[in-house]
Amino acid sequence: MNDISFGQYYPSDSFLHSLDPRFKIIFTIALVVGMFVCNTVLSFAFAFLVILVLIFISKIPLLTYLKNLKPLIPIILLTVILNLIYVPGKNIILHFWIINITTEGLKTAAFVTLRIIGLVIITSFLTYTTTPTSITSAIESLLKWLKLFKVDIHIFAMMMTIALRFIPTLIDEINKIVNAQKARGADFDSGNIIRKVKAMVPVLIPLFISSFRRAYELANAMECRCYNGGEGRTKLKTMQITYKDFISLFFVIAIIAALILLNKLKILGV
Amino acid sequence: MSILEIENLTHIYSKKTPFEHIAIKDINLNIDKGEIVAIIGHTGSGKSTLIQHMNGLFKADRGTVYYNGSDIWENKKNIRNIRFKIGLCFQYPEYQLFEETVYKDIAFGPKNMGLSEDEIKKRVFTAAKYMEIPKEYLNMSPFDLSGGEKRRVAMAGILAVDPDILVLDEPTAGLDPKGRATLFSIITNYQKQTGKTVIFVSHSMEDVAKVAQRVVVIANGSIAMQGSVEEIFSKADELLEMGLSIPEITKVFIKLNENGHNFKLVYTVDDALNQLRSITEVRDNE
């Protein structure tokens, strides 16, 4: 557990890193929608070309992105199998027992797989190039209009920020307590489920106690600095919209338009 | 013979990520039976990483730790028994307390060893005695005790395992001067009575000078120097360069010598007092 670095932020100085997080969130949503628009071989080819270019621009090794796909392999396999079996069609390629594998099935299976891979990589662009705290403040900024409905978005953003901020601290703390109890011979790895759950008690109790202590101390520290909610609060790091964001906006619109157009063109009927 | 032998130990955190960081590299260290060894070093120098290798909480990327001549990782299933032999007490150990009563918490280790109820009881009482925990505390909740008492309970939990080597990570961190003095006198008494090996990490040069027989200085993940208290603290300049210090009383005596006096350098207040007393006695006799 020592290698957990929370969030997936990958520090670098690329163009993608320097974009405004609010724009990045909107771009991500747009590209995710774009991935669902893809329906032909051409549009998929174009989408993946764009993804490859973005990977190159992000200055993050391709392998780091592929690592994100690993946990999805079972889901991809399952959808491929289900699509192969259940999608009806006329062109039967393989037939055995009651199973018919058709060209239509093959096509949907391939497209679904590509779509999942594309979606994962596109969302990775956001999480790899933006720190969790900038994502939260971007969400806070994007959801400002909720104030009209008397929703205090600042409180939620603050809670999110604090939660995110304390995840690495808590992971550190868990590691420390686990090691301290291991030093007294606690055994977390063997035995059945009930024994394993019981073995967690010596970790959970100290963890809860220290979490409450931390919460209490943090509340005091915030009060000492006159924190009283979001009204009139300024930020140390203000988000800046630059010409880069508008250039990117132009490209994203162009990409979506291209995807829609390419959907109309078909090679060999697919 | 060395009871603990560390050979070419190297540990790297977050390997193959942009956060990669070499915590310790090529550490070679021998600890003899019955020694009291102090490990000093700047924050982040790798002390805590090093001591967590001693009882197999960390597995090194390179290098070996030998306990009584055999590799502690020789048999992976045996690592729990190694942890009973090499008792590691973390910084702020009071944060690991979890049981309803002091007794139960101290008994956690011996229970994990699978000892009989009688043996557990014996061990809890012995450990509590060493740590000077009054008997009536044993039935109290550990969370009702004061900070210093909690720490003694937590340390008793390690002693109850009856390890051959006791490794302490900054045992006196956050205690007041009196608490520090009590804790160190407890530790030295325990060592004297049992003859066990004690390794401790400390930031207080006064404590190191008072208690340790040997000092190991770690800087940037390697052993910068090691030797007796006198040998180490006589290299004050080098220590200061590493962001470490020497005992305050030694600083006073260095200043006195710079101003023309001719004192023998001392490292503890008691030695300073003795030296000054012997001088005044000589004068009084004259």
The proportion of strand residues of chain B reads 15-25%
If strands are numbered along the chain, what order do they take across the biggest sheet of chain B?
6-7-8-3-9-10
Strand content of chain A: under 5%
Q: Major sheet of chain A: order of its strands? A: 1-2
* Overall average pLDDT of chain A: 85
Q: What general form of chain A does the structure show?
A: flat
Class derived from helix and strand content of chain B = alpha/beta
Give the distance, in angstroms, between the N- and C-terminal Cα atoms of chain B.
Answer: 50 Å
Succession of helices and strands of chain A: HHHHHEEHHHHH
Order of helices and strands of chain B: EEEHEEHEHHHEHEHEEHHHH
Number of helices of chain A: 10
Q: Percent of residues of chain A in helical segments?
A: 55-70%
| Radius of gyration of chain B, CA atoms, in whole angstroms | 21 Å
Specify the helix fraction band of chain B.
Answer: 40-55%
Largest sheet of chain B: 6 strands, mixed
Would you mind describing this structure in some detail?
The complex is a heterodimer of chains A (270) and B (286). Chain A has 270 residues and is mainly alpha-helical. Chain A folds into two domains: 161 residues, no CATH class; 86 residues, no CATH class. Chain A is built from ten helices and two strands. In chain B, the strands form two sheets. Chain B has a six-stranded mixed β-sheet, with helices on both faces. A four-stranded antiparallel β-sheet of chain B has the order 2-1-4-5, with helices on one face. The longest helix of chain B is centred in the middle third of the chain and has 18 residues. The radius of gyration of chain B is 21 Å and the shape is globular. At the A-B interface, helix 8 and helix 9 of A face helix 2, strand 6 and helix 3 of B.
